[in-house]
Amino acid sequence: MKEGAKLVVDGRGVKLQGYENGYFLGGCLFDNVTPEMRIYKEEIFGPVLAVVRAKTYEDALGLVNSHEFGNGTAIFTRDGDAARDFASRARIGMVGINVPIPVPLAFHSFGGWKRSLFGDHHVHGMEGVRFYTRLKTVTSRWPTGIRAGAEFVMPTMK
Question: Which residues does 16 contact at the CB level (< 8 Å), separation at least 6?
Fold first, then answer.
């Protein structure tokens, strides 16, 4: 906020029943974040979303690829060509296509690339077999069609 980002949703002050003296953070949404800001530069593991606006697809992909961390990224599109291009060119460990959080199932390795990976090995997966390879997990989802409207929620069993 000091650097110019706008706090749209403030998750501070959350109290959970039975844990009133605990330290919890609810969902936070920051808009108008730029690559020069601390909130953009530091990796945050919590319910915090920082919205960075890009003028073009290439500018957005450049933001993803030039960041020092490489945990996960996602694209929301109905354009298969854009999805394939993004999955192919994003230099990130976990890529989501129409999936808000691209965390793979336990039999895939969880973890990013670059400075997001701690240590020599990923947590799960066939690390012994893939020791000398660089794994990229792409999770994609193709909803029914444009007439059904946009969905921005984690898909669940109904």
Answer: 22, 24
